Amino acid sequence: MNVLAAAGDTRMLWYATRGTGIVALVLLTAVVALGIAGSQRLRSERWPRFLVVGLHRNLTLLTLAFLAVHIGTAVLDGYAPIRLLDAVVPFLSAYRPVWLGLGAVAFDLLLALTVTSLLRARIGYRSWRALHWLAYVSWPVALVHALGTGSDARVSWLQGLAIVSTLCVAAAVLVRVRAATGAGATRLAAASLVVLVPLGTLVWYRTGPGSAGWAARAGTPTSLLAPAAAAAKVSTAQPVVATLPSPPFTAQLSGSLSQAQQTDAQLVLLNIRGQTTGGARGVLWVRLQGAPTADGGVQMTASGASYGPPSSPNEYVGKIVQLNGTQMVLELNDSAGTTIDLTVDLQIDSATRQVSGTVSASGVS
Q1: From the CB of residue 200, how many other CB atoms can be counted at a distance below 10 Å?
Q2: Which residues are within 8 A (CB) of 162 and not within 5 positions of it... i.e. 6 or more apart?
Q3: Residue 159: which residues within 8 A CB-CB, separation 6 or more?
Q4: Residue 2 DSSP class
Q5: CA 258/CA 20 separation, integer angstroms
């Protein structure tokens, strides 16, 4: 039974979206820091002020370029229902609307900042300077977006990057506050915000993106989540295994396939649930959404997957990154950021909808 049709390799889009988003955040951090440096007229014989201004301008344009690629690959990836409109109009997305909407806000602010800078001679210095403060707003909004909607929010290297970026911006703002000539109360309030805002962000992170179950609470569509009911249906007859064996390993798969017709956009939803034995005792769940093709297959538009031991069937969560007929490659991550690739070779009985085959695991990082 040819249920699955080739959908191409989406791995490059997946990594491009993640990578360009992180690079854009780093560049935006540098833009804010250099903007403060330029405002303080920091210069030397080897580093005149016009170099600071030029570098600041070029980094801003480079940030926009990376954001354009970040948005484009997220839309083309198809894993999450993200439209191009969602990148510029906040809070309309069906996927994590608040946190994706904050990304749209940050992009709109940075775009407005760039456009007004190009029109500085026409709008006047005072108006331009007032709008230029948008840079200070776009950075924290972008950081919250990265933590709230990114797939690496619980990975240690992103946590470290967020801390370093926050320290850099906080230090730059404190330099600006120290050099300011305004009232003492205003300067004290600004300095207090530099301390309180990061602390508030840390508390939010610990109770939000840094905690279990964030994907569902953040607004991820249920079609992309492994339902909790899958864990309750796991047979208790097999012995409980705390963890999966270390890759590489190959196990035998047995399970079932179900198919449902979705009313929107003439899409079908395929669910594969099964258990692996032999090389590893585990529970596998794969959900694939797509449009039916003429040859009886499905052209994938979104997917979700999970795999783990019977005692923790959602230990690894991710999606399909390669699909070719009845063979698929899953990229899955655990809460510590460890990644495994699962190659699933399926055999489907068209009469009974029973599924068999093999699951081969390889470690990535």
Answers
A1: 11
A2: 143, 146, 147
A3: 210
A4: -
A5: 37
Among 31-40, 58-67, 147-156, 353-362, name the one with the lowest average pLDDT.
31-40
As a whole number, the mean pLDDT across the chain is 81
Q: Count of CB atoms within 10 A of residue 321's CB? A: 24
In angstroms, the CA 74 to CA 100 distance is 11
Residue 119 DSSP SS3? coil
Concatenating the DSSP letter of every residue in 28-48 gives HHHHHHHHHHHHTT---SSS-
Q: Which residues pair with 332 in a beta bridge?
A: 318, 340
State the DSSP H helix or E strand holding residue 347, giving kind and residue range, or none if neither: strand 339-348
Q: For 67-125, write each residue's pLDDT tens digit.
A: 999 999 988 877 677 889 999 999 988 888 999 999 999 999 988 888 888 888 888 88
Structure tokens at 117: 């800078």
Question: Reduced to 3 states, what is the DSSP secondary structure of residue 289?
Answer: strand
Q: How far apart are CA 7 and CA 167, in angstroms?
A: 43
pLDDT digits (tens, 9 = 90+) for 40-52: 555 555 666 667 7
Please provide the size of the chain in residues.
Answer: 365
Q: How far apart are CA 345 and CA 308, in angstroms?
A: 18
Q: Which pTM was predicted? A: 0.66
Tokens linked to 272 = 């594969």
CA–CA dist 140, 146 (Å, integer): 10
Query: Are residues 330 and 284 in contact, defined by beta-carbon separation less than 8 angstroms?
Result: no
DSSP string for 297-323: -EEEEEEEEEEE-TT-TTSEEEEEEEE
Contact status, residue 240 vs residue 311, Cβ threshold 8 Å: yes
